[in-house]
């Protein structure tokens, strides 16, 4: 039986929250109509720890790893992050605009952050995601679809779909066929 995730006033109930300062109010709150799937690992291809939390809070110490020096000035967030064990963290209220998509376009409409929800999976383009991540992502997707009915299964995309040539995530190992079969 699938666990139900409840969303109230833009927040997941009884889930971990790490508040990010990297967000803006949405220009049109009832325009949430796109779900974007990403991956992230900090440092690249390394999993675990709280570096993603620190990054989304703007508190990543650049002396901890050479790669962190390269990204120290970036101001990025996502609405949620799912680690390799399937644990879920929310950083930005779904009713606000997280800074996850960057320069982007969907069906001719620019600035996807304004109308999308961004979900990060702990991963890379070098290995498959875990069963626990898919389970949590599917549960979260069902809750998002129920709460934000303008997001339909055909309006769920990868970062690579809205920023082609610039982004590759969720990458070659993301099992779109399986995921889509579970969120119809």
The structure class reads: alpha/beta
Strand fraction: 15-25%
Query: Given the structure, what is the number of helices?
Result: 5
The residue-averaged pLDDT reads 96
Estimated helix fraction: 10-25%
* Strand/helix succession: EEEEEHHEEEEEEHEHH
Question: In order across it, which strands form the biggest sheet?
Answer: 3-7-6-11-5-12
Shape annotation: globular
Question: Could you please describe the fold and organization of this structure?
Answer:
With 184 residues, the protein is α/β, with parallel strands linked by helices. The protein has helices spanning 51-57, 66-71, 131-147, 159-162, 176-182; strands at residues 7-8, 11-12, 16-17, 23-25, 34-40, 80-82, 88-90, 96-98, 105-106, 109-110, 116-122, 156-158. The strands form 4 sheets. The protein has a 6-stranded mixed β-sheet with strand order 3-7-6-11-5-12. The longest helix has 17 residues, at 131-147.
